[in-house]
Design a protein that fits this description.
Layout: H1 4-13, E1 24-30, E2 33-38, E3 44-46, H2 56-67, H3 72-79, H4 83-93, H5 97-100, H6 103-107, H7 113-117
Antiparallel strand pairs: 1-2, 2-3
Helix pairs in contact: 3-4
């Protein structure tokens, strides 16, 4: 069981990530996490941070879905990852269609020129 003195000790053990000072004051909450402000340098920071990055596996899955023909917005609906994030991953990967598909197979797919101009 923690008493108020234990909470005070825990707070004193935390230091500013910039200057290392232990002179901190509470500075509100962000998403139910306590914010602190350093009295020495003025840096504001959280008591704990959650990971905001997606795993490489998730990124590769989204890129693979995109190159298999799914739109970025469809992937967004399935994965709950914003479509601009997905498009940024694709742009950063600097991939072309030939990286994902055999270009010789794509050349053998029949293409109807008349279908191109129809509104059907």
């Amino acid at each position: 069981m923690l008493n108020t003195n234990d909470h005070f000790k825990l707070r004193l053990e935390m230091n500013c990530p910039d200057c290392g000072s232990a002179e901190l004051q509470r500075n509100g909450h962000r998403d139910r996490v306590q914010c602190y402000k350093c009295k020495h340098c003025g840096r504001q920071f959280l008591a704990s941070y959650k990971q905001l990055r997606y795993s490489e596996h998730t990124k590769q899955q989204c890129i693979q879905m995109y190159f298999s023909g799914m739109s970025a917005r469809t992937i967004e609906k399935l994965t709950k990852i914003h479509h601009t994030t997905i498009l940024n991953w694709i742009q950063a990967a600097d991939l072309t269609v030939s990286d994902w598909f055999n270009t010789e197979e794509l050349k053998t797919i029949p293409y109807n020129e008349d279908h191109k101009n129809s509104k059907g």
